[in-house]
């Protein structure tokens, strides 16, 4: 393995991406002291120089002397050759990585995601303002009858909370049947694209916000009639989120409803190419994405059923949207798995696949009907 690295050191140097500086700032914020850091398997030091910004000294070790010859010089960095007898190279994949450390809200053992953030509020791939616009345009609108169905299940309609609201596509529909909607998201860029509505209050909930602060923001304990999470709950730290739900939901009478859409259907020919696309993305799916792709059948949902699915058996619903060819490409490009793969240098929408989509679609200007298979769970706090 060392020999392989030696021969490819120059190629490795020119092809590897640079890591965003904000990652290292986030990690530095988690440690009270910033005297010494150790970057293991430093390679050409693409991570080391980022670590050296917030830390005074960085020891950077690697088993490949050739790699270290190509490392980027930096005053606080000491490069060290560490023979493989000291640090064995593992052939195991990332999905089998043991990680026997207490979580600091940046992932945990048996839970992999490209995003360096995992909180009670939401785990997400950061979106630029341009990406947030694409996300807003590409997502389907939820049918109004869904919200009428949910409203019929709560005796009061004073306050609703839409969690992980994104561009507010669910929040504005909730507002048609509830007097006030608090719509929260950790993404400020998403909220800038949110759809205005007089009864919706959009609130940015930064990662630093405590559970008590969030409960107070929503309205306090026993105050919320309906909580919704539209294609979002799979990103949450459920061990923290569900206790918050149980605190703020009105008892009795309040309910939580979560849903996601799985497969998208057009025609047999287009659907076959869509399956190819999603197969390409499987190696880059986080555990959160898999929960959605499994139609919430594996989602823990510790609430008493109100007749809209139950844990392990979500209710299946259909959602329809008229879509152009460009709309389809926007939708696919907005999926988190595409961003995750792109950050790792893999294009899930290569030219060949796009040409296959175009041939199957027919006239590029034609509009087709898409059917989204959607899965919903709703429940109340068990008393």
UniProtKB/TrEMBL annotation:
InterPro entries: Methyltransf_11, SAM-dependent_MTases_sf
Pfam families associated with the record: Methyltransf_11
Gene Ontology molecular functions: S-adenosylmethionine-dependent methyltransferase activity
Highest taxon of the lineage: Eukaryota
Domain Methyltransferase type residue range list: 162-257
UniProt xrefs under PANTHER family: METHYLTRANSFERASE TYPE 11 DOMAIN-CONTAINING PROTEIN, OS01G0589200 PROTEIN
Name the UniProt record assigns to this protein: Methyltransferase type 11 domain-containing protein
Organism of provenance: Salix brachista
């Amino acid at each position: 393995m060392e020999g392989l690295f030696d021969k490819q050191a120059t190629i490795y140097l020119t092809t590897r991406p640079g890591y965003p500086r904000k990652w290292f700032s986030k990690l530095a914020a988690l440690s009270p002291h910033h005297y010494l850091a150790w970057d293991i398997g430093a390679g050409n030091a693409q991570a080391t120089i980022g670590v050296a910004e917030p830390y005074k000294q960085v020891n950077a070790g690697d088993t490949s002397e050739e790699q270290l010859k190509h490392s980027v010089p930096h005053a606080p960095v000491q490069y060290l050759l560490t023979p493989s007898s000291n640090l064995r190279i593992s052939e195991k994949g990332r999905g089998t990585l043991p990680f026997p450390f207490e979580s600091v809200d940046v992932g945990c053992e048996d839970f992999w995601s490209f995003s360096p953030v995992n909180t009670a509020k939401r785990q997400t791939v950061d979106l630029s303002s341009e990406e947030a616009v694409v996300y807003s345009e590409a997502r389907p609108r939820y049918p109004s009858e869904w919200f009428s169905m949910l409203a019929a299940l709560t005796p009061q309609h004073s306050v609703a909370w839409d969690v992980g609201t994104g561009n507010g596509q669910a929040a504005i529909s909730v507002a048609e049947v509830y007097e006030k909607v608090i719509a929260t998201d950790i993404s400020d860029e998403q909220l800038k694209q949110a759809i205005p509505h007089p009864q919706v209050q959009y609130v940015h909930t930064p990662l630093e916000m405590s559970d008590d602060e969030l409960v107070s923001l929503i309205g306090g304990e026993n105050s919320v009639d309906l909580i919704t999470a539209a294609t979002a709950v799979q990103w949450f730290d459920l061990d923290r989120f569900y206790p918050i739900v149980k605190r703020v939901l009105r008892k009795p009478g309040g309910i939580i409803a979560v849903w996601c859409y799985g497969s998208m259907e057009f025609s047999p020919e287009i659907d076959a190419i869509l399956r190819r696309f999603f197969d390409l993305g499987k190696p880059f799916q986080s555990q959160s994405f898999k929960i959605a792709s499994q139609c919430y059948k594996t989602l823990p949902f510790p609430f008493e059923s109100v007749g809209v699915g139950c844990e392990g058996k979500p209710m299946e619903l259909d959602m329809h949207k008229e879509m152009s060819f460009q709309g389809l490409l926007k939708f696919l490009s907005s999926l988190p798995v595409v961003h995750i793969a792109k950050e790792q240098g893999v294009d899930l929408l290569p030219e060949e696949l796009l040409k296959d989509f175009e041939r199957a679609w027919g006239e590029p200007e034609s509009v087709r009907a898409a059917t989204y298979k959607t899965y919903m769970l709703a429940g109340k706090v068990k008393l």
